Amino acid sequence: MPITDLIYKCPFCNSKILGVGPNKASCLGCEIRFSRSEGAQILVESKENQAYLTSGDLLKTAIETSVTDRTESFNGDGNILSSDSVVYRMEGCQPVYSSGALMGYTEIMLEQESGLLNLGERLVFTVGDDTLYSWGLEEISSFLISSKAVQVYIRKQGLFQFELTSDSPKEWEDTLTASVNKFHRLRGNEVFAYHPVIKTRKLKE
What we know:
The protein has helices at about 5, 55-75, 170-185, and strands spanning about 15-20, 25, 35, 40-45, 50-55, 80-100, 100-120, 120-125, 130-135, 140-145, 150-155, 160-165, 190-195, 200.
């Protein structure tokens, strides 16, 4: 797993991160460098301070907290997150066999368009000036990520996959999680499960 899957933005200044091979990354803002060390340790190097080792989990928590804070302060204007991507839509399933035995099924995903995936008060996919898809957060039944894509299951419409051109699927997962949590909390509910589907219950008074 590349280090940028863990550190997809700078935990110190929130700027974008540039991967330098699978085990090193550099902040495009404050220019702090991150390198994998033994175990779950990350070496942090800056021009001003002495290099030191820290826990990858601590950096991950700092990034997730920053994403949550940004989502909580979002007032509905513009977008929280936008990424160039290619959208695929599930058009069916095909069986998977091994030695003649049915092992299961895999989705048939058909490419549709290249455009911009936007998350604000709604999840919107635009192609140029046109909106191809627009969904309220209540329509999202579930979501998950892979190394390069975000899959979103929309109620009554099915599965959509957004293959990101350069941005981090983990950033999308964290931001979608924070946005869905906020959406339901403002309506008196809390999310208590995300898989296999999003489940909510009334908040305790």
